[in-house]
Undecaprenyl phosphate N,N'-diacetylbacillosamine 1-phosphate transferase
Amino acid sequence: MQPKRLLDLALGSALLALAAPALATAAALRALRRPPGGILARETVTGLHGRTFTLRTLPVRRLRLDALSRLAHVVRGEMSLVGPAPLPTGAPGADAHWRRLVRPGLTGPAQLRRGSTLPWDEPQLLDQHYVEHHGMGLDAALLLRTPAALLGGAGRRRSARRRRKRRRRRTATEPPGAAGHHRTATEPPGATGHPRTATGGDRRRGQADLSDADHRLRRYSAAE
């Protein structure tokens, strides 16, 4: 058995055992609501050697139970802890030949960059780079980054919800006709209508455009 598969089996089984109580509770609560699509979301994805399987996910994002519910696929050998993001059969890029060389993963370069300002084709390039250069060292680095990325994503979602609530409160308390007049006296004329773009100078480090510079993928590091 290969070291990568041994890691998937050992760590995946341990994580699944730890997450089992929370998963069972969330599944029971969801069953009480009797969702029309059933307790689990299902989609057909392509895995190792082009074999397809039904990916079952508990669609509960709190505590990232949606990702943890996929650990059963890791233990069964249909997925890996680290690998390219699983794509539904028929999705753009799902039939790429390099995807057939490894199992799809719970985490990976593309999954860790999810929610950033990457161009639409960047996740495919990151996944392809991983397949061409993967090893136990890269897998370990990506696994170590995953908890912080998950917590950071949850924090961003909470901040976005708070901002939406504040906007709704401001809108509810504004006098009629006041909407759309929030420019301050110190704002330079003509500044309205010129939002900063994702490709401007304020992009965070590690999120530069790669789509027109594919050669940089050879130097991609999980520690960026």
